[in-house]
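Worked example 3. Consider a protein that binds protoporphyrin IX containing FE.
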Amino acid sequence: MNGARYTSTAISLHWLMAVLIIGAFCVGLYMANLPLSPMKLKIFSWHKWTGITIFLLVFFRIAWRAWHRPPPLPPAMPRWMQVAAHAGHAALYVLMIVLPISGWLMSSAKGFQTVYFGVLPIPDLLPKNKELGDSLLLVHQILAWTMATVVAGHAAAALKHHFVDRDDVLTRMSLRHSTLKEKTP
Ligand code: HEM
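Given these inputs, the predicted complex is written out as structure tokens:
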């Protein structure tokens, strides 16, 4: 399908995942330096469940995107900006996959199995190995900060479209805009 606008499902997934990614990032930073306590372990679990949810949702999102092509970027955008926008989007998809995998690998190596929502044990990907766990924590941190940087650039670009270029790149990612367009031929 080649639609000239985002579907309501694509818009809902976009904002749901934005909230989950920003939430996982902030909770990750908050929990990192907490003293060991039952509360810290609980927050670790919330963080891991959020990360696994992002990991599951991204495959649904990629499949949805493959079947419902997103609207094209404004033709007035310079070519280099279009390339940068596509590269940023591709980087976000890659990070939505590899960042959760790095957390999953790290938890496995540190010997803390993830039990999704406290009921579904997720198989460990690696045997327990403290040194490897510490190296994977560094990988997880680097990927998390890379994700934060790309998300910040993505949001800044969206705001520039809205307030400087005054095009509809930001508003077309709104459910209200999508419903209005569905009603007006
Ligand atoms: C998009 C998803 C994710 C984001 C944005 C994210 C982000 C972060 C951040 C910012 C930290 C703090 C790093 C630091 O400063 O020390 C962190 C720590 C951590 N993350 Fe994630 N994470 C994600 C997914 C996951 C997943 C899926 C798991 C495991 C299944 C996981 C397990 C952990 C653990 C165990 C820590 C604490 C490590 C420690 O201090 O020993 N994360 N994460």
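Take a moment to read the result before moving on. The chain has a mean pLDDT of 94. Residues 130-165 form the longest helix (36 residues).
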